[in-house]
Design goal:
Length: 331
């Protein structure tokens, strides 16, 4: 069974210690009630990941764990077979003891777009909301963060993260909790909060922005990346049914509209620092993720449109600061 005791110990004397009033009960309930049918199989994989500490570790320019020289060919094949049981791998890539986990997303490209615009993460306490398997969390740690916490309710993502962590160092100050943001109390504690690829999946985007603000300390920084559409501050696309074959896409605002939403939710210094059309090279099927991917979601006759006829995915990155003098919802 996956244990969260290390996280409890690490935050006991930190500015997150008040989270201990509610978190153990919530995660205890998750451990008792979680019913995902594949979780026992995935946990068996984790229990078999007993490998030597890597001879090299690069989290600054990639997520590379070991050179591949420590394991025999047979040991590498065994490790790869274990990691493939945790497929599909969507966010990455990871390089593990000479094994290239070629994920659906080139998440390193997103990091390269985002990282030049954020405040330095050195000695910061960071929250990554909707973190997936944790790829960006590792890059945050590599950028100098003091502590990185990710939340994502997916059991598969939790097991993928745990697999990588056990191959690196189980005691590092980086943790993924199987929670949604609605299960977090207002912590007012993080220096930086990331929400990347989440907002358009929320039925109430304003509530999501308020929940993000509630996790930041006064003056803390929000890094928000989401799908947008072209238009003025009154433009918001609400897909009638699906968007890119996804049935959980609710609101795609314009840059101007989302800037207004952020200001209304108590953020200042709001700026859009990047606009990028998702390319077929950035999101695609691989041997580690063999399901449909972006090419299947776009109109085969016009890749500038989704199969439903909506504008193809356009992603915007926003940076904003929690304004200590501005009450959310009031100018």
């Amino acid at each position: 069974m996956i244990s969260f005791s290390s996280f409890y110990r690490q935050i006991a004397d930190s500015n997150l210690q008040h989270w201990l009033e509610s978190l153990p009960a919530i995660l205890g309930e998750w451990q008792r009630q979680h019913k995902h049918g594949n979780l026992p199989k995935w946990e068996k994989v984790l229990n078999k990941l007993h490998y030597p500490a890597p001879d090299t570790l690069d989290l600054k320019d990639s997520v590379t764990i070991g050179t591949g020289q420590q394991l025999s060919t047979g040991e590498q094949e065994k490790l790869e077979n274990l990691l493939r049981i945790l497929s599909p791998w969507r966010k990455g890539p990871f390089f593990v003891h000479g094994i290239h986990i070629d994920t659906e997303w080139r998440s390193d490209w997103k990091w390269d777009r985002v990282s030049p615009h954020i405040s330095p993460l050195t000695n910061r306490t960071v929250l990554d909301v909707g973190c997936g398997s944790g790829y960006h969390m590792w890059r945050m740690l590599g950028a100098g963060a003091k502590r990185v916490v990710g939340i994502d309710p997916s059991s598969l993502f939790l097991c993928q993260f745990e697999a990588i962590k056990r191959l690196v160092d189980p005691e590092l100050p980086i943790h993924l909790l199987p929670l949604g943001i609605e299960e977090l109390p207002p912590l007012d504690a993080f220096d930086t909060v990331f929400s990347m690829g989440v907002l358009y999946h929320r039925r109430s985007p304003i509530d999501h922005l308020l929940q993000l603000a509630a996790q930041l300390r006064a003056g803390g920084e929000l890094v928000l990346e989401t799908l947008v559409v072209e238009g003025d501050e009154n433009t918001v696309l609400v897909p009638r049914d699906r968007y890119g074959k996804m049935n959980n896409v609710w609101f795609l605002p314009s840059v101007a509209a989302l800037s207004l939403w952020l200001e209304k939710c108590g953020f200042g210094e709001v700026r859009c620092v990047n606009l990028d059309v998702t390319s077929l090279a950035e999101q695609r099927s691989t041997s580690w993720m063999q399901n449909e991917s972006l090419v299947d979601y776009l109109d085969p006759k016009d890749i500038n449109r989704t199969v439903e006829g909506y504008p193809a995915p356009l992603r915007a990155t926003f940076i904003a600061v929690k304004d200590p003098l501005k009450e959310p919802g009031r100018e």
